[in-house]
Structure formats: C-alpha cells, structure tokens
Amino acid sequence: MMRERFYPVMRMMDPENMFDSFMKPFFEGDTLSGFGAKIDLYRKDGKIFAEAELPGINPDDVELHVYSDRLTLSAEKKSESKEGSKDKNYFRTERSWGKVERVISFPVEADPESAKASFKNGVLTVEINEKSQDKAHKKVSITTEA
Question: Which of 73, 126, 139, 141 would staple 50 via disulfide (CB 3.0–4.6 Å)?
C-alpha cells in the first residue's frame, strides 16, 4: 500500500522522466504555453524547403529570416478574448496561444537572396536555393625534396 501511494512521486523524481519533461519543449519548439511549430526540412532539385505548421496564426504575425546556414522563425498566436467570454464556464480548454521561436540549421549552404515564402492553410512554406558549389578544380602535383 505504501509503495502505491508514493509511486507517482518516485516517478516524477526519476532522472530520465525529469530530463524528458524538462527538455521536451526545447526539442519540439514549444513555449510554456504549449504552443509550438512543427517543421519539415527537405531538399529537392537543388533547393531547400522548410514547411512549418502554424495553425491559427495570421501571416502578418510571422517573422522570418534566412541566412546562409539557418532559418529563424518567430510567430505569435494571439489569445482570442471575445466579448462575453468572462461569462463562459469552460469544461475544458485545450487551445493554446503564445509565441514560438525556432532556429533551423541547414545541412548545406543556402543562398538567402533566393528565399521566398508562401502561407496556405496554416502551413508556411519557405523555398531557398542551395549555393552552388564551385565544381572547377585544379589537380596539384606534389613534389618531394631529397
């Protein structure tokens, strides 16, 4: 009986669970409000694509910066306080709001000048050309000294 009573406390003190619960927001891009942006990053036809789920966010509330080695995304989902909401007796509220910031590193060098972005159905799509790698090269002979 004593063991069952303290099991939840012992589970919370387990180092692995403590680490997971503390670090999860950082790896998933969530803030304390529970709001986050899930991002897919892929390459196709010499371009890098990033697709971020930003449901319920107005594109005007998104700030996007593209560098040669990374993309930074900052967005804010504003709280919807409608007239008369003080009188509501909620049974459950799961919708989240808040600010999210993500930094996504590119696996290859990108050309920031070529970046373009579009927003459709709550998904932000960013397209950036990869920087072309100079394929010209020179074979260098090595001489040895006696």
Answer: 126
Residue whose C-alpha is closest to residue 42's, from 125, 116, 100 = 125
Range of the domain at 109: 31-79+94-132
Q: Which helix (H) or strand (E) holds 26?
A: helix 15-28
Whether 21 is in a domain gets the answer: no
Q: What is the pLDDT of residues 97-122, one digit of tens each?
A: 788 899 999 999 999 999 999 999 99
Whole-model pTM? 0.63
| pLDDT (tens digit per residue) in 79-103 | 766 555 667 787 887 777 788 899 9
Whether residue 108 contacts residue 43, with contact meaning beta carbons closer than 8 Å, is answered with yes
Which residues are CB-neighbours of 107 under 8 A, at least 6 positions away? 43
| Element holding 44 (H helix, E strand) | strand 39-44
Q: Which long-range contacts (CB under 8 A, 24 or more apart) does 91-95 make?
A: 95/56
